[in-house]
C-alpha cells in the first residue's frame, strides 16, 4: 500500500470584520452582525461542512487604539468558542490567550472545560502579548520586555501542562457499586514553586479528552522560535515570500528535532489572505477596490505600531524614508517588524504602496488570483517545504470565506491535497497529533509520584 498522501491542514482565521482593514466597509460585509452569535455559528458550520481543521480567534487584553476606523474590538475567545462548539460536532477551535496577562490556574480550568464540553476540540494559541498598553489594564506600570515575557511563558506553560496532567486518565471511576467517584491516588498536586508562579494544584476537573488542548504558538522571533520548538504542536506565522517561509519552516523543524521531538508533530501554518476572482484581472480589481476603502490615518497608525516611525508629515506617494527605521531593541526582536522591513528593502515601495501591502492582512501573504492560481500558490508552498497547511484569512466575511470554500477547496481535493471528510473526532486527530502521555503516569516518574501520592491523600482529606 502506498503511504497516504500528505494532507494540508486548514484553519479559518476569523477577524470579526474580515482581515482587510477596510473589509468591514465592503458592500458585501455585514458589520451590523459582528456581535451576533448566529453570524459566527453560520461560519463555524460552513467551515465544518468544508472539513476545515479549526476556527482560529486572535485576542489581546486591551482595546486596539484606533478603533475609530476599523472593526477591531475583541470578543473573549474562550467564551466565543464555547458557543460555537455547541452547534458543531467535529471542527476544532483555537483560542488565543496571553501568558503575560493571565494566571495559569484560571486558564488551565477554562481550556480544560472547553476541551471537555467540546469533546476534545480545543487548541490554545499561546501568546505573550505584544501590545504594551495591556499592562495598564492589569495594574502594572510597564509591559515586561520581550525576553521576560517569553521566560514567563515557558514557566506558565509548564504549570498549565502539569495541571492538565494532575488527574491521570484513570482517575475518574464513577462506580455506582463501590460508591467511588474518583481514585484520589491518581489525582496529584503539582506543588509548583517558580520565578513567576506558585501553584499547588491539582486542577478542579479530570484530564480532558485530548489529554491537553493542542498547543499553538504564533511568535517567529528568535525567542519565539525557541519557545515553539519546545512546546508548539502548530505554529502560526506570517511570510511574504516562498524563500522566507522555507527558511522559517526548515529552522523550526530542525529546532524541534534538536530537542528530541518529532518534526511531523509540529505543523507550520502560515497565513494567506486570498482575493479571488473568475479572472486574474477581476481578482486584482477586487483587491484594488478594498484598498480604495482604506483610510490613511488608520493605516499610518498601524504602520507606526510596527516600525515606530511617524510618517504623517510625508507625501504618501513619495518613497518610503528607510532612514527613519531603527532596528535595535525590542522592535528588532519582533518578527513582524522584520516582515515589514523585508518588504521595504525588497520592493522599495512608496508609503502608500506599503500601506496597501499591509492593509490586506498586517504583513501576512495576500494573493489575488483565480481559484486555480490560489490553489497553485498553496500547493507550491506545501510541496516545497514552506508549509504544512494554512490559516485562511478572508479579507471580508462571509463571502470571502464562501468563495474559498466553493472554488478553492474542491481544487485542493481534486489534487489529493485536502480531506473529503474527517477521519477522527478531536482537533489532535485532524492535525495528526498524538494524545500526549500523562507526565504523572510515566513509569520513570513513579518515585516522584510516591511523594505526590502522600500529598494527594492530604489534599483529599482537606
Ligand atoms: C497568525 C498569527 C496570529 C497571531 N495572533 C496573535 C494574537 O491573537 N494575540 C497576540 O497578542 N499576538 C498574536 N500574534 C503575534 C505573536 O504571538 C507575537 O506576539 C508577535 O509575533 C511578536 O512575537 P515575536 O516577536 O516572537 O514574533 C499572532 C501572530 C500570528 C503570525
UniProtKB/TrEMBL annotation:
Oxidoreductase as UniProt keyword: yes
Superkingdom field: Bacteria
UniProt binding sites for FMN: 59, 96, 146, 150, 220-221
Keywords for the protein's UniProt record, in alphabetical order: Flavoprotein, FMN, Monooxygenase, Oxidoreductase
GO MF annotations, alphabetized: monooxygenase activity; oxidoreductase activity, acting on paired donors, with incorporation or reduction of molecular oxygen
Pfam family, one: Bac_luciferase
SUPFAM superfamilies: Bacterial luciferase-like
Keyword Flavoprotein applies: yes
Domain Luciferase-like intervals: 35-386
Record PANTHER family: ALKANESULFONATE MONOOXYGENASE-RELATED, C2H2 FINGER DOMAIN TRANSCRIPTION FACTOR (EUROFUNG)-RELATED
Family: Belongs to the NtaA/SnaA/DszA monooxygenase family.
Annotated protein name in UniProt: LLM class flavin-dependent oxidoreductase
Organism: Mesorhizobium mediterraneum
